[in-house]
Amino acid sequence: MISNGYHTPVLLEESIEGLSVRPDGTYVDLTYGGGGHSREILKQLTSGTLIAFDQDPAVKPHLISDRRFVFVQHNYRYLKNYLDYMGISAVDGILADLGVSSRHLDDPGRGFSFRFDAPLDMRMNPAQAESAADLANSLDDAALKRIFANYGELNQPGRLATRLADARRERPVKTTGDLAGIFEPILPANRKNKMLAQIFQAFRIAVNHEMESLEVMLSQTPQLVRQGGRLVVISYHSLEDRLVKNFIRAGNADGRLETDFFGNPIAPFKAINRKVTIPDTDEATANPRARSAKLRIAERN
After folding, report:
1. Using one digit for the tens of pLDDT, what is the confidence trace for 1-32?
2. Going by C-beta distance under 8 Å and a sequence separation of 6 or more, which residues neighbour residue 12?
3. Phi/psi of residue 276, each to 5°?
4. What is the separation of C-alpha 139 from the centre of its chain, rounded to a whole number of angstroms?
5. Helices and strands in the chain, H and E counts
6. Could you give all domains of the chain from N- to C-terminal order, each with its CATH number?
7. With contact defined as beta carbons under 8 Å apart, do 64 and 38 qualify?
8. CA-closest candidate to residue 33, choices 48, 15, 21, 45
9. pTM of the model
């Protein structure tokens, strides 16, 4: 495992091996973060090129200085737009390490964690208009219920939505402490931290439109990954993993298989690791963020 003090990449060896890097190939790291995966890809390139995406300007001090490296400060949902702009019609591999990074969770000012009392922000791109506080104070009960159910996978989402709606009538929800304090009195003591994490996850996914962006990005990959190229995705919760699994299986978010005239399945990718890859005990112990990670690798048909 490699750590630069800012970022510890998850499933590093397994994901880079899954990418099957060609020295002269063109690759995309959709989630640059601290650059751990990007650095390993560059080690295997000679005349090749690596394009990295990240919407968070906080990564700029940690960018790699290398003539083979190009950085794009945008959400990965705009992958095809920027490759078109650069005159790149096909790439040899795409890697995405999804979800929130350690640096987001450990920075109190970003408002991602209930461990700190800070402004309730949660925006991966600080230039984005709506923060988590905006959603917490403006969404109606039905929308809150959907977020808790769909993105937090929480039981009794209606009860949680009503609790928040009632509380904000007394005073606006401004900080992470405000949000956690609304729910703490009604959460079981033995599950409080887990459920708070699910509540915060629900808002984070909603604020950053994570599931929508993931689906948009995946839908572009059949056009962009050349035959024999690889798609490598690391996910951290069942919503992401289910979407990735469905897409690899069938080429769509629903996992709905289509067949040709002869009844053969039509899917742009084939799974390389039929069984999802997870961190070993040593990695999960050394890097708690890795514990829920799932790696899926696919090859373009």
Report:
1. 444 445 579 999 999 999 999 999 999 999 99
2. 1, 2, 36, 37, 40
3. -55, 140
4. 24
5. 12, 9
6. 12-102+210-300 (3.40.50.150), 108-208 (1.10.150.170)
7. yes
8. 15
9. 0.92
